[in-house]
UniProtKB/TrEMBL annotation:
Keyword Signal: yes
SUPFAM superfamilies: Periplasmic binding protein-like I
Native source species: Nitratireductor pacificus pht-3B
Alphabetic keyword roster: Signal
A Pfam entry, by short name: ABC_sub_bind
Protein name: ABC transporter periplasmic substrate-binding protein
Transmembrane helix listed as a keyword: no
Superkingdom of source: Bacteria
Signal peptide span: 1-23
CDD domains associated with the record: PBP1_ABC_unchar_transporter (cd06325)
InterPro entries (alphabetical): ABC_transpt-TYRBP-like, Peripla_BP_I
Length: 325
């Protein structure tokens, strides 16, 4: 048997130690979403960009475990259990139901939620400032102040806004409350029209005819599922329809001011990086994205505006980031 030289042994020991150090330096972040739609895919991309900004690069010193529940809540709960079993350094859940599933499954692994409209109503955190426990994150509440400004520019005589929503959804209630809060100083009142099911959306919209100068559609899955029916009513009676999310503009509403979800994800990634660097999640303030973002998406649909009797000022078109002809 040949003797292994001391030099060879030393090299082997160094290699083993080096591998051990690399393993210790590798961080693991688990990311999940209830479903993949453009805004949520952009959020995930932003999270990775935000982590990279702070030196955590996938494949270099960062391992990413990404799971999509494909709209199935039991699957989402199984993903949550898997993540807890894997014990990553940080869990980043995208959307409210995903965040609720993760937080219900662990009170020890740091959780940095994102794209959650109202984390207080969803009972994810007790307050935004240093929420405590193992949770913090980023809210994607709509920039309603900026949306109201756009609506007033396009409908100069705006005094009353119709609001079609499902009263059973926490995020819709939160949006309604914020809309009323922001509209009151402007002398604008809000008329509610409830639609607990998608089949009732058209009727709820028709009830607003003659009572309001415009209709605002929140990020309410029940109502948005029937958006085309709302748009048709708006076209038939020259009632301007606006929405809380820019993606709705391509489906026929006149316009919206919305968040850049890549940038929202980037903010989330920055917070996750702070946790990876040793800070406790509960010691980091949760963030409302529109309060820290300096730029917003402005989407305008020219065809919809013409169909609903609205003239588009050049100033609005000049600052639009997306114009649908």
């Amino acid at each position: 048997m040949k003797m292994i030289s001391r030099t060879a042994l030393a090299l082997l020991a160094t290699a083993a130690l080096s591998g051990s150090v690399l393993a210790q330096d590798m961080k693991k972040v688990a990311i999940s979403t209830i479903v993949e739609v453009p805004a949520l895919v952009e959020t995930k991309e932003g999270v990775l960009k935000g982590l990279a900004d702070k030196g955590f690069v996938e494949g270099k010193n960062l391992e990413i475990d990404y799971q999509n529940a494909n709209g199935n809540m039991p699957t989402q709960q199984q993903i949550a259990k898997k993540f807890v079993g894997d014990n990553p350094d940080v869990i980043v859940p995208i959307t409210t139901p995903t965040s609720q599933a993760m937080i219900a499954t662990t009170d020890t692994i740091p959780v940095v939620f994102t794209t959650v409209t109202d984390p207080l109503k969803a009972k994810l955190i007790p307050q935004y400032e240093k929420p405590g426990g193992n949770v913090t994150g980023v809210s994607d509440a709509a920039p309603i102040k900026q949306q109201l400004e756009l609506m007033r520019e396009l409908v100069p005589d705006l005094k009353t806004i119709g609001f079609v929503y499902n009263p059973g959804l926490d995020n819709a209630i939160a949006t309604l409350e914020e809309l009323k809060k922001q509209a009151e100083p402007l002398g604008i009142s809000v008329v509610e029209s409830a639609s607990p099911t998608t089949n009732e959306v058209a009727l709820a919209t028709k009830k607003l005819i003659g009572k309001v100068e415009a209709v605002y559609i929140p990020n309410d899955t029940t109502v948005v599922a029937a958006l085309e029916a709302i748009v048709k009513i708006g076209e038939d009676v020259d009632l301007p329809i606006f929405a809380g999310e820019t993606g709705a503009v391509a489906r026929g509403v006149i316009g919206s001011v919305g968040l850049d979800y890549v940038e929202l994800g980037r903010i989330t990634g920055h917070i996750a990086a702070r946790v990876l660097n040793g800070e406790k999640a509960g010691d980091i303030d949760a963030v409302i994205a529109y309060q820290v973002l300096t730029e917003f998406k402005v989407a305008i649909n020219k065809k919809a505006a013409a169909a609903m009797g609205v003239e588009l000022p050049e100033a609005v078109l000049a600052r639009a980031t997306e114009i649908i002809e």
